Amino acid sequence: MENGAVAHTNSVVDPRIISEIFKCRTDKTLLWDGFKKDSKGRDIKNQYWINAAVDFVLHTKGIKKQGGCLNRNGVANCAVVDVDKDIDVKEICREAYRIDPLIIMFKSPSGRWHAWKFYHQDQDVKTVIKDIKRIEKEFIKLYGTDVDVDKTQPTPGGLTGINFPFSSDVQYPYSPQGHRLSWKKFLFKYRFQHHPLVAIAAGLTEPGRHRTLCLIAAYLEKKDMFQHLDEVVDALDDFTDTGYVKRIKEKKIHSKYDVGPDAIQIRIAEIVGHEEPIIKIYNEETGKNELIDFEADAQDVTAADVEDPPIPEPDLKEVITELELFEHTGLEKIKPRPWLLSGWLLEKALTLIVGQPGVGKTMLMHMIAYALVTGNPIFGKDILKRGNVLIVAAEETLNEIDIRLTAARIKMGKNDGRFKIYKRGLEQDLKLVKFTKDAAIKTNQYLQLEKTIKSKNIKYIILDPLINFQSGNYNENDNQNMDAYVKQFLIPLAVNMKGAVIAGHHTNKISMVSTQDSELLVDNQNALMAARGASSLIGAARFVLALQPMTKKLWDSHFKQHIKDGSNFVHYTGLIEAKSNYNMIADEISWLKKDTIQVPTDDGFTESTGVYTTTDLNKITKAKNKLKAAENLAWCKSHALPTVQKLFNIAGDEADQITLNSVVVELVPLEDDAGDDNIPESKIKTRIRRKLENGFDGKVETKDGFQTEGISADDGYNYWLKRDHSKSGAAKVFIARFIDFKKRNMNR
């Protein structure tokens, strides 16, 4: 028996009662004879219509399994959605209750699911159809094509039918907790379905039944239904505490409990398994599920967990202890950081790989995955800890994952088999987090993943793309949503694995690379902020790698004349280290080239896919940047330095910094094109500013082996850039003067 199941005996099912509950057309019956094999050996449903009324006596005995059409001349008293999927019992029952508290989940003849809703009285079929279509849409959101829309009942016309339950031990109902209900407890739930806390008592086996019973007793008394308390007690599985029931009846211990709508909601949410009270209460007057006040003066507080709340001692005071602190002594033994992939992956951390759609994020992540199991370096980065990898690619098929990994093997070498790559593709949906209006909760699949991590000894998880692994009321632009998603759910996975989570994420179309006076400039901050959605994502990630496609303009101006292998700008992608919390990021872009790999297929042909490889473009970039830096340094010494010294002389000996803009203004008239009306002054200022920033912020190796920033001068000072971020708005940039580096370092 499963989930605290109660033995089901067909003999106790009253066919007269079931014929009243499951009404249908009386001239046609749907017969169910199990499954049969088709011409290809596949199982198909063996069911057909006959011109006869349903015989519920034979049906409940399991002799003749039957069903029918619920549209009876324009009226119906029940409806059903066919969820043709083998779903975890607790999950589907919990979700069904969230969709509509009046739904009762039944197993279908094939062991799948039927979601029934009962109206007790005949309703216009148009009204019922509208209601059940609403429910059907909610199930479709959860389970997609596995919801059989052709079997949703009732229908406007035609002759579509549904199998009635209680025909065998396969077809039985469940409580919202996922506990199997007996026929007797189903009738209890059916009878009290418009009183949700009372109805939910059927099948309640978890701890907290005493508390629930007290709350129900208080509710029944306010509703003049206290005479039904014994029925509630009988509906509680294996509840034998007669003494407690006596205390309720005689001592009225339930009077201490509140029955405001929020209190009831909270308890229902706890029983069903929701972390927040998101379930609405059925309003008999409006016929809708909504929050209603049972009493105008009700206080919305939860019921206490104890039978008789203890009275604290009047003079009892809470003792506040000091917060534990740890002193840094300077004598600590410093342990190295737990690097997994040097500079990119750290134990118990999240790494983001961001870029525009189609730029090659997936390609890069598959290559990283292969490097992590083989130990092969990737783009000059060492793998420091190998381990098993799980790739979850929400936008790629399993076959496509295999093609990409095979290409990585061809490019990087064979795996010795010590570690494995596991995979899930778009064929296997994965939702780790569900967002409600008020909370984010773990899904059953998240819990399954936790178990899988342990059993498979997974150290690395690759999620591609990040946006696909949540559901519900999620807004990627909401910092609170994003913060919860990453910090409460994704990073804990990395912590539990003592590994890392790598997530792909889309960017806005922001250029991270520009040129200025033929100089290639990388904007790390722009690369960092290009990630789409809330900024808390970037804040939570310890590392961010950004991919930037090569542009035709950049290719033509910087690389085309140097590359003679026939490649074009479309073959190149730039890799930018946009963020690292634990090491200096590279201030240059690394250019990767997309090479084509032919992957053999089982039909004797091949499929093409891409892999990344390092390129000579990086050497070209560094050479050009070095040359440009030398030019700017020489220009600053010949043009800027005299102006800087003049401004400091004017400012006096007490001055230690002057604004960069004041130097720019002084230098503008010295430019050859300053008097050209066709060239805006702003353009000239920008050019000068770039030269100053590059010349004064460069590193200079001296004869005595010291390295300093800025430019040394004859007046005994060094000059270099200083950024003051204490000011409001953008950082203020100064040229600062300091004592000459030779003097500063003479005592080393």
Secondary structure layout plus pairing:
Elements: H1 15-21, E1 29-37, E2 43-50, H2 56-60, E3 66-68, E4 75-83, H3 89-99, E5 103-107, E6 113-124, H4 125-143, E7 147-153, E8 162-163, E9 173-174, H5 183-191, H6 196-199, H7 209-222, H8 229-235, H9 242-251, H10 261-272, E10 281-283, E11 288-290, E12 339-341, E13 345-346, E14 349-355, H11 361-374, E15 388-393, H12 398-412, E16 421-424, E17 433-435, E18 440-442, H13 444-456, E19 458-464, E20 470-472, H14 479-497, E21 500-506, E22 513-516, E23 519-522, H15 524-529, H16 536-540, E24 543-549, H17 552-559, E25 572-580, E26 590-600, E27 606-614, H18 617-651, E28 657-659, H19 660-667, H20 681-696, E29 699-701, E30 707-709, E31 711-712, E32 717-724, E33 732-739, H21 741-744
Parallel strand pairs: 14-21, 14-24, 15-16, 15-19, 17-20, 19-21
Antiparallel strand pairs: 1-2, 1-3, 3-8, 4-6, 4-7, 5-6, 5-9, 10-11, 12-13, 17-18, 22-23, 24-25, 25-26, 26-27, 28-33, 29-30, 31-32, 32-33
Helix pairs in contact: 11-12, 18-20, 19-20
Task: Write a structural description.
- With 748 residues, this protein is an alpha+beta fold.
- It folds into 4 domains: 10-186, DNA primase, PRIM domain (Alpha-Beta Complex), CATH 3.90.920; 199-290, no CATH class; 339-615, P-loop containing nucleotide triphosphate hydrolases (Rossmann fold); 620-744, no CATH class.
- It is 32% helix and 24% strand.
- It has a 9-stranded mixed beta sheet with strand order 16-15-19-21-14-24-25-26-27, with helices on both faces. A 5-stranded antiparallel beta sheet has the order 7-4-6-5-9, sandwiched between helices.
- Strand 1 (29-37) and strand 2 form a beta hairpin.
- The model is unreliable at 1-11 and 291-317 (pLDDT under 50).
